[in-house]
Amino acid sequence: MTCNIPTMLTWLRILLIPVFVIIFYLPTNPQAFGAIPAHWVNLTATAIFAVAALTDWLDGYLARKLNQISSFGAFLDPVADKLMVAAALIVLVEFERVGAVVALIIIGREIAISALREWMAGEGQRSSVGVAMIGKVKTAVQMVAILFLLYWDGIEVANLGMFPTKLFGQVLIVIAAFLTLLSMAYYLRAAMPKINRK
Which residues pair with 157 in a beta bridge? Predict the structure, then answer.
């Protein structure tokens, strides 16, 4: 197994997943022993998720910069991404910040496209379903939406009042779900010539 800086960052991202999930289950009821302010829980979970998301960009950048691209790293990186997003969405569904249908669309798409890429790789056609611009835009919108929904509390903006974090998060996650369907259609269309020959 290759162990280099990008791969270690990917492992760090995976290890941070249970940390930010556990944060959400700390006691916040003011009457409970050892209660923690709900705002602190939201802020801490958001910060941990943001660090994990940053390692997603950083490990890819360093892999190219340091010429440390490996087949294991290429396998582990998308697995870490999908685990991170799925864990966040499941927590957000449980806390009623995201609808189950939206979460199902996003998680289901990730599973379906991962399976499609694996099959296409076996057919020697992985490049046909490589990451496209619509996939990158979907990921960016999705990550921003999740950060807003994890934070949840409004943000005081000087001279502008309270920024409606939860509203923006809920709108963006719906847009992300729509882009998810569009990107899935794009990848399926790219793979269709190969599928039709089977």
Answer: 161
d(CA 17, CA 71): 23
Interval 164-198: pLDDT, tens: 899 999 999 999 999 999 988 888 887 777 666 65
What is the number of alpha carbons within 13 Å of residue 104 lying toward its C-beta? Answer: 3
Instruction: Give a three-class secondary structure readout of 71-124.
Output: HHHHHHHHHHHHHHHHHHHHHHHHCCCCCHHHHHHHHHHHHHHHHHHHHHHHCC
The angle at the Cα of 81, spanning 79 to 84, to the nearest 5 degrees, equals 105
Residue 57 in tokens = 């960009």
**Whole-angstrom distance between the N-terminal and C-terminal Cα of the chain?**
34
- Name the one residue in this structure whose structure tokens are 């009457």: 31
pTM above 0.85? Answer: yes
Q: Please state, as a whole number, how many other Cβ atoms lie within 10 Å of the Cβ of residue 185.
A: 11
Output the six-digit token pair for 163.
Answer: 């920024």
Q: Comparing 9-13, 60-64, 78-82, 122-126, which segment has the lowest mean pLDDT?
A: 122-126
Percent of the chain with pLDDT over 70: 87
CA within 13 Å, CB half, 186 = 15
